[in-house]
């Protein structure tokens, strides 16, 4: 990838999404830390009345982190890197610029409405798909606008070949479009019942086992095409640019891409193991989950081998630390998930705290680390100011790394303890422990998780402050920073 310094890129839309990434990241992690503390100290449920209970805040936490922080990060990095790999500026097309800004403002207004409705308890009660039908329509419009901007840029590009990052962004767009539409097909009861009831209320077009299957076909692949595919797009762009190293194997990146596309879509039924879903479907979900290790590790190993011969950069550049550790957590998380999908393991893990432990070592260690690293890389180039404090960045890295380790180890221990206690029987076949026995035993681990949440949140505040100072008062740069030459 050659330097594109000759072109003047327009980062106005990328900047707007950078701001919302930081805003929603803080809100999502603040709420997450509060609900983690509520599990350890239940009296905290009554701080804010009914609006501060775990049942109201938990959907708010997941949706703000997924659709607020992560998607804002995806769009910020796309509107930045997309121009550079396609060698075209958004400013060259007034139409694309208009669509990009409309994309942001419709998203921002829609996000605020979504937050308010969830806080009021207006939900269709489907995991990662809680929004009611009017908001779903707005989400579809937002997604279509992104597609128009993306394919508009691709259509006027100067670079004939599409770099691998663009493949992953396109897959993110197409995958979530299909998944979201099918899972959110619903019938508004206001119209069906002749105006009786809330205009926001609806019922799913699916029922029973079919509803569960479609929901987890969506749910797991929302993780695939929201937390995996676009984050891989980021690291394939930002790690080579930051390190000055070419991607280790472009062929491996393509092989891993198609592997993810074909395998990931069939793994969702591992969320409904030991249920009324047909046994062959459960087995298929388990098998495809295990096969998923291959393309996932193919991407992760390709990222790590990109640093071959240049590992000394880990000691020199905090951003390389973030990216390399993100890749490492990606490897660990994509091994842990398939292990949990094995039916005999899932019999212990199902419904336990090992599951949120797995989710968070992936999200906190892989997704958040990579998005923060990407924004740190972008900031000097977008705002033409050097990073305010690399020492703060270094301190943030170690604080948040410690927090992630505390989080997932406490939840691993808690989850396996839960699973074993729930299954334990005496010589007469009676359960040995009541539910409250497990709650009592797990209290120390919940406390550790809450502490880890506080530590990670403090690290994110450090990131936000560092970004703010970089944008406003850091030393101005006369020219764009260039990547480190491997021969230097």
UniProtKB/TrEMBL annotation:
Query: According to its UniProt record, which reaction does this protein catalyse?
Result: 4 Fe(II)-[cytochrome c] + O2 + 8 H(+)(in) = 4 Fe(III)-[cytochrome c] + 2 H2O + 4 H(+)(out)
Highest taxon above the source species: Bacteria
Major subcellular site:
membrane
Please list the residue ranges annotated as the Cytochrome oxidase subunit I profile domain. 13-488
**Which keywords annotate this record?**
Cell membrane, Copper, Electron transport, Heme, Iron, Membrane, Metal-binding, Respiratory chain, Translocase, Transmembrane, Transmembrane helix, Transport
Give the record's membrane topology.
Multi-pass membrane protein
Q: A Gene Ontology biological process annotation?
A: electron transport coupled proton transport
| Co-factor binding details | Binds 2 heme groups per subunit, denoted as high- and low-spin.
The positions annotated for binding heme b 1; low-spin are 61, 360
Checking InterPro entries in the record gives: Cyt_c_oxase-like_su1_dom, Cyt_c_oxase-like_su1_sf, Cyt_C_Oxase_1, Cyt_c_Oxase_su1_BS, Cyt_c_oxidase_cbb3_su1
Annotated heme b 2; high-spin binding sites: 358
Q: Which PROSITE patterns match?
A: COX1 (PS50855), COX1_CUB (PS00077)
One example of the protein's molecular function in GO is:
metal ion binding
Q: Which GO terms describe its cellular component?
A: plasma membrane
Q: Which residues cross the membrane?
A: 16-40, 60-81, 102-123, 135-154, 161-182, 216-239, 246-267, 287-307, 319-342, 362-383, 404-425, 445-465
Q: State what protein this is by name.
A: cytochrome-c oxidase
Q: Which organism is it from?
A: Sulfurovum indicum
């Amino acid at each position: 990838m050659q330097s594109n310094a000759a072109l003047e890129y327009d980062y106005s839309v990328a900047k707007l999404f950078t701001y919302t990434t930081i805003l929603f990241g803080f809100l999502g992690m603040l709420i997450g830390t509060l609900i983690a503390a509520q599990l350890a100290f239940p009296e905290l449920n009554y701080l804010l009345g009914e609006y501060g209970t775990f049942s109201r805040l938990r959907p708010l936490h997941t949706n703000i982190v997924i659709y607020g922080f992560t998607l804002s990060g995806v769009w910020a990095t796309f509107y930045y890197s997309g121009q550079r790999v396609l060698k075209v500026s958004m400013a060259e097309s007034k139409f694309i610029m208009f669509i990009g800004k409309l994309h942001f403002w419709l998203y921002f207004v829609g996000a605020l409405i979504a937050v308010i409705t969830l806080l009021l308890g207006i939900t269709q009660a489907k995991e990662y798909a809680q929004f009611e039908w009017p908001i779903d329509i707005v989400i579809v419009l937002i997604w279509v606008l992104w597609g128009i901007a993306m394919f508009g840029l691709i259509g006027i590009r100067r670079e004939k070949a599409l770099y691998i990052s663009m493949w992953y962004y396109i897959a993110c767009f197409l995958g979530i479009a299909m998944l979201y539409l099918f899972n959110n097909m619903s019938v508004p009861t206001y119209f069906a019942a002749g105006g009786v009831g809330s205009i926001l209320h609806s019922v799913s077009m699916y029922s029973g086992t079919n509803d569960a299957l479609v929901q987890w076909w969506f749910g797991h692949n929302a993780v695939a095409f929201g937390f995996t595919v676009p984050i891989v797009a980021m690291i394939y762009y930002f790690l080579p640019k930051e390190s000055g190293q070419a991607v280790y194997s472009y062929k491996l990146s393509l092989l891993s891409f198609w592997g993810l596309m074909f395998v990931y879509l069939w793994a969702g039924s591992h969320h409904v193991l030991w249920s009324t879903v047909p046994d062959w479907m459960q087995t298929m979900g388990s098998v495809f989950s295990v096969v998923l290790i291959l393309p996932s590790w193919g991407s992760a190993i390709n990222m790590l081998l990109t640093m071959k011969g240049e590992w000394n950069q880990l000691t020199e550049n905090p951003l390389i630390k973030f990216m390399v550790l993100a890749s490492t957590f990606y490897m660990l998380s994509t091994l842990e998930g398939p292990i949990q999908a094995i039916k005999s393991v899932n019999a212990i893990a199902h419904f336990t705290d090992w599951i949120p432990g797995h989710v968070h070592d992936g999200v906190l260690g892989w997704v958040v680390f990579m998005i923060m690293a990407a924004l740190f890389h972008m900031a000097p180039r977008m705002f033409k100011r050097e990073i305010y404090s690399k020492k703060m960045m270094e301190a943030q890295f170690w604080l948040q790394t410690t927090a992630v380790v505390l989080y997932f180890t406490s939840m691993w221990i808690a989850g396996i303890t839960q699973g074993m206690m729930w299954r334990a029987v005496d010589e007469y076949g009676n359960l040995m422990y009541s539910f409250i026995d497990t709650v009592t035993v797990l209290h120390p681990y919940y406390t550790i998780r809450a502490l880890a949440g506080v530590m990670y949140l403090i690290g994110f505040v450090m990131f936000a402050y560092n970004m703010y100072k970089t944008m406003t008062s850091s030393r101005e740069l006369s020219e764009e920073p260039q990547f480190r030459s491997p021969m230097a």
